[in-house]
Specification:
single chain, globular
Length: 319
């Protein structure tokens, strides 16, 4: 019987064994990664450089962009490199690092989404107390708690996962190291505690989701009392995308983690993994920021200033 100590590397699932399809997978993932990279970097840059955006809503948005950037950078580049080099392996330590970082970024990101819902609740339902409740210190503490809780949760999750003995070989049925797929490789007597921990994790995530829903129920009640049609439309337009992203992320994650591991096909596993690991980091900048006039104005002003400086330097050199 093989155990954990004999596993030195894992074999990841490839999208195809055909070279042309591997190149297509590389190109598609490269485009998606560059879109996510550019979108989130633009958001981070705009918020960091424009002091008008130094308010709680954009502070949390900047944290979310950093987490999205981290989460997609942990999984996608490795998958792209494997496709380009026609390889499938990842080292044992690389798998540990991948799981640890993915859990950190995903769990902290969901905590930030919860903070953003609370911020909108206070802003719309308790506007007179907003500056007192959502002051600078409170925002920093909320963001720090999200990061710290994500790190501590990931430490426990990663430790429980790799404390198991692997008796089912080293073939991971996914394009990155994913805990449900590693459970398939675990000995039957060593994964029960991790399964209980996963169920507890989903209950915790569901409680955050319920908090977000209840917050937005109160927000919608307050919005419906706004006399201006334009004001109601603006408020709804900032709330609905948030709920859509949270629902998509939570539903796909719940399906990936709670579905029976023996009854799902590899193609379905890949599709669900791409859905919850690639789409949110790519869509969040579009949903939360690219439709936001303040972000657009900040980006256009910053890009215009950079273009003006570059042209001025060129003229000076020519002169």
């Amino acid at each position: 019987m093989s155990n954990q100590s004999t596993v030195t590397e894992f074999l990841l699932l490839g999208f195809s064994d055909v070279q042309e399809l591997q190149i297509l997978h590389f190109v598609v993932f490269l485009v998606l990664y560059l879109i996510s990279l550019l979108g989130n970097l633009l958001i981070i840059t705009a918020i960091a450089l424009d002091h008008h955006l130094h308010i709680p809503m954009y502070f949390f948005l900047m944290n979310l962009s950093i987490l999205d950037l981290g989460s997609i950078s942990v999984t996608i580049p490795k998958s792209m490199a494997n496709s380009l080099m026609n390889a499938r392996s990842i080292s044992y330590s690389g798998c540990v690092a991948q799981i640890f970082l993915v859990v950190v970024f995903v769990s902290a990101g969901f905590a930030i989404l919860t903070d953003m819902a609370y911020d909108r609740y206070v802003a719309i339902c308790q506007p007179l107390h907003y500056e007192m409740v959502m002051n600078r210190r409170a925002c920093v503490q909320m963001a720090a708690n999200a990061w710290i809780s994500g790190i501590l949760y990931s430490v426990l999750h990663t430790r429980n996962t790799f404390a198991m003995s692997f008796c089912g070989g080293n073939m991971v049925d996914q394009f990155f190291c994913e805990i449900p797929q590693l459970l398939k490789l675990a000995c039957s007597d060593s994964y029960r505690f991790e399964v209980r921990f996963l169920i507890f994790s989903m209950c915790l995530a569901s409680s955050c989701f319920v908090f977000i829903i209840l917050s937005y129920v109160q927000i919608f009640k307050a919005v419906l009392r706004i006399p201006s049609k334009q004001g109601r439309h603006k408020a709804f337009s900032t709330c609905l995308p948030h709920l859509i992203v949270v629902s998509l992320f939570l539903c796909t994650s719940a399906f990936a983690y709670l579905k029976p591991t023996s009854s799902s096909s590899s193609g379905l596993n890949l599709m669900v993994a791409v859905l919850y690991s690639v789409l949110p980091p790519m869509m969040n900048p579009i949903i939360y920021s690219m439709r936001n006039k303040e972000i657009k104005h900040s980006l256009s002003k910053w890009m215009g200033w950079r273009l003006f400086t570059k042209n001025k330097m060129s003229i000076f050199l020519l002169w």
